[in-house]
Amino acid sequence: MANGVLILAEVVDGAVSPVTAELVAAATGLGAGPVSAMVIGSGVEGAAANVAGVEKTYVVDDAALAQYTTDGYTTAAQAVAAKADPAIILLAQSDAGRDLGPALAYRLNTAIAMDTIGLEMKDGKLHTTRPTYGGNARAVNGFTSEPAIATVRPKTFEPAAGGSAGAVEKVDVDLSGIRTKVLSRDVAAAEGVRLEDANFVVSGGRGMGGPENFDVIEQLAGALGGAVGCSRAVADLGWRPVAEQVGLTGKVVSPNVYIAVAISGASQHMAGCSGSKNIIAINKDADANIFKSARFGIVGDYKTILPPLIEAIKKEKAAG
Amino acid sequence: MHIVVCVKQVPDWDIPPSSFKVDEGAKKVVPPPGVAPVTSQFDAIAAEAAMKIKDAGGDTKVTIMSMGPATARETIKQGLAMGGDEGVLISDDAFNDIDSTAAALVLATAIKKLGDVDLVLTGRQAVDWDTGVTGTLIAEMIGGPVVTFAKAVSVADGKVTVERVLPDATEKVEATLPAVVTVSNELGEPRYPKLPQIMAAGKKQVTTWTAADLGIDAAALAPKLTLEQLFVPVVDTKVEIIEGETPEEQAANLAKRMKEAKLI
Ligand SMILES: Cc1cc2nc3c(=O)[nH]c(=O)nc-3n(C[C@H](O)[C@H](O)[C@H](O)COP(=O)(O)OP(=O)(O)OC[C@H]3O[C@@H](n4cnc5c(N)ncnc54)[C@H](O)[C@@H]3O)c2cc1C
Ligand SMILES: Nc1ncnc2c1ncn2[C@@H]1O[C@H](COP(=O)(O)O)[C@@H](O)[C@H]1O
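# adenosine monophosphate complex -> structure
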């Protein structure tokens, strides 16, 4: 009988990724039986012994998994799922989760709900809630097949507070069928605070008018000790790197303060920042959608507002 | 080289959030009156990826495929105007409101029926449900690899090479053919067909297939994922607009309120 919840604990740079604790919390909160984890990669046995808050951790450690490939990771996850026989599988809506999730669902002859922000057990079965139509609507889904699989949007669940690690069980998998090859991988060098971890995020939109005008965004972020973000319009125009894009197809951030400057607040942008505790909007259009989600707003031209705002914030901070 | 581009017709997403409406009983989105459906954004970009491969030379045929109501023919025409060679419209009432697995099954069955397909291009996600699973499922069903989130796609020596765009990295990945590649907006804007191309598209052949043509019966379309509820979430924030005689004063007042609210 399928039982319990299996999560994918991703290993990034040798350590269990921060979102794992969110998955552990989500899985534990379901009260749907024992929670186990799977760790996939090469040289990841050490990390596997460090997944906190689970009863058991399955590890597939193989040189063929040194680079992420859909084929390799899906085959490994499938083998673990066959062994663990869970009723529910949770993955993060991460690069890996959004890529391998659907393939895993197919191979297990079941379905997946992508990018969920709510999980609930009803009559012993998983129901998921997910934003859809660019964030304009919410869909609640149920499953007629098992295991029920979902990817969980990062920053949705409070991370679990530690707990002891589970026993590690090795799973051997035949990985000879990998049909893709990673020829190169360039990681965007992150400067300063990581966007996803920042307490303050200052994002600029198309209304900034050009890449040269982002100086004031950087200065404001600097004054707050925060990170710079942007809208997709800005990333598409090449004004800022894709790594700074916030939104449905960019990053999800949930800082204490999110300052949106010259951003209209399209639902797809809000999908990446609506979890922020406080949104502050600066926009010259009083009817801009961004004001609907904001706690504080200034209607005005950023060019005249931002320079004095940077000074005023420095002053308030200095006053202690 | 035969490329299939999967294009979906969706409600226009470029409408003000205030005119976005849902019929909760029917669990359906109700488009504002007079607003016509459009091609899903990333699918037009997938068509652009196909045209770029065609431009690069070689003997390349591009088939534009859509599953949907009769109006989806418009979406196919758009792909043909961009330079597609033939269209396939898959239309049947049995396909209304099916889940992603069933939709992928229909598309994969049609792709297999075409027979000689080397590369399937899809959008990274359809902009109605924002799911992003169909490309991968098609790959599993036709027995080929998938590469997601492409910003550049090229084909040579029986292999497809893809530049993948991820939030914190770019990757170059090579896959054996036949393969499926899902395309992201970083690939660039789709080309804008000119009038003669639009006229010519009207003369290109669009084949229509039904469930019977594909040999798919109702049992194969039973949902694994069910839609229980669809609703518009309530946003109940009340914005406090910071006033002031001058921009300097507005800025100073905001900083003060941030301090009072213990944000700084
Ligand atoms: C499937 C899909 C996925 C998407 N994913 C994302 C995503 O991940 N992230 C994302 O951001 N978008 C995403 N989008 C795009 C989104 O719909 C919007 O097009 C985009 O967010 C708009 O960016 P913007 O607010 O910067 O530009 P605009 O909408 O052009 O807004 C510019 C704003 O600047 C204001 N302004 C202009 N000049 C000034 C000035 N001098 N001072 C103050 N204000 C000024 C204007 O009033 C306006 O409100 C997606 C779209 C789709 C269809
Ligand atoms: N009904 C359809 N007809 C043609 N292509 C589709 C259809 N549904 C999905 N697709 C393709 O699959 C991609 C991903 O869709 P989805 O998994 O629904 O987000 C889309 O961008 C399309 O390229």
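# post-check
The mean pLDDT of chain B is 96.
Chain B has two domains: 2-221, 234-264.
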